[in-house]
Each structure stands twice: as structure tokens, then as C-alpha cells.
Amino acid sequence: MLSNTEVWSQQTRQNCLDVCSAYDHPLFVSFAERALTALLADELRRYTPHSLSACLWGFWQFVTDSRQELNIRVFNPDPVKTGWRSDGTAIEIYSSEMPFLLNTLRIALQRGNYDISVLMDINLPLRRNRYFQITDIPKNINANADEYRSLIHIELTETYEESALQELETTIYEALTTLRRVVDSFPRMQTLIRDAAQKLIERMPK
Fold first, then answer.
1. Quick one: DSSP state of residue 114?
2. Which tens digit of pLDDT belongs to each residue from 126-142?
3. Which of 137, 174, 181, 200 has the greatest number of beta carbons closer than 10 A?
4. Which of 42, 44, 34, 57 is nearest to 11 (CA)?
5. d(Cα 125, Cα 138) in Å, to the nearest integer?
6. Is 0.90 surpassed by the pTM of this model?
């Protein structure tokens, strides 16, 4: 039997999806459905169905416009322009899959004394055509497929302006680009270790 909180969360997610459907964009609705499951009840309470659908629509536009392997957006939502309000600065990240991505991001924010109020972490396969337009969000696909992307939306407890906003973006960018270099160099490190181990074996007395 579902608790009152679970029943409320399910109804709230459905109400938001009903609003999302008004955008008449099936791929966006599919994206929103996956994104909503990433939000806890306490996070859902920060929004109305209309403000949450507006937040998700802005996040979806960021995702569709992202072309590079790593894209970072740090901004202060303007309710008049975006249709939703946040208590603090928002962060959105589009990245190819990397191990420890979310942990690295959390550590970087913690070290910078940035507190998180909302965290939406989505792992989705995004199929694009030759013009880099998203054409499908496949449901049945190998978990290791290259089409998977990590999509993260974070809202902080405080609002940062001007140089502080730039410093925040730099903190995130440096942490994630360092992680990318480590991940990219790992196969080379494995090869070197295997070669060194083989040489040690060959030099062992017989």
C-alpha cells in the first residue's frame, strides 16, 4: 500500500506531465517523464505543475542545443522569461557518460561551500540524426551504448551574481574536465600496467 506521500508524488508527477503534454512535443514528454522520477517528494514541493513543466522545458532546450561532449550552463532563472522561480542559482550539465561524474560534481560543490536544494540526475540514450537533432529516446537499448548521456539539473540554496557566478562555473568546469582527462587516460594506464606486469613475469627466475 502506498503512503500518502507516495500517492501525492505520483499525482503531482502526473499533473506536471499533463501540462508538459500541452507543448505538443512527444520527445519532450518522454524526457519529462524520466526526469520527474529523479525528483524526491521534498523537491517536487518546491514547484507547481506549471512551474516544473517550464523548468523541464528549459532543461530540454539546453539538452537539445548541446553539441559538445560536455556542456555546462550556470544561470539565475528569471521567472518572467523562464516561467519558473528558483531559490538560488541553477546549474545544468550535459555530458557523455563518465564514471564518478555525479560524485565529482558533488565534491567540487561541497569544497566550494555550495549547498544543493534540488538535484535531478538523468541518464538517457539520445539518438540524433546527421544534423545533430534528437530524433528518439530509445527504451530498449544496450546499457553500454554510446548514445547514453548524463543530464544533471541542480538548484543551489543561494543566488550568485557576476564574478561569483563565473567562479562557480569555473569550479564545475575544472572538476569535470579533470575527470574527463583521467577517464580518457585510463585505458593507456591499463596497457602500461599490463606491459609492466608481463615484463616482471618474464624476468622471474625459472
1. P
2. 999 999 999 999 987 77
3. 137
4. 44
5. 6
6. no
153 burial (CB, 10 Å; 0-12 / 13-18 / 19+) is: buried
CA distance from start to end of the chain: 67
| Confidence (pLDDT) at 192 | 46
Whether 76 and 165 have beta carbons less than 8 Å apart is answered as yes
Q: Work out the angle between the directed axes of helices 26-36 and 4-21 (0-180°, nearest 10).
A: 160
Instruction: Express each pLDDT in 108-129 by its tens digit.
Output: 999 999 999 999 999 999 999 9
What is d(CA 12, CA 9) in angstroms, rounded to the nearest whole number?
Answer: 5
Using DSSP, state whether 170 is helix, strand or coil.
helix
Dihedral sign, Cα of residue 52, residue 8, residue 138, residue 25: negative
Taking the C-alpha atoms of residue 11 and residue 5, their distance in angstroms, rounded to an integer, is: 10
In angstroms, the CA 102 to CA 58 distance is 21
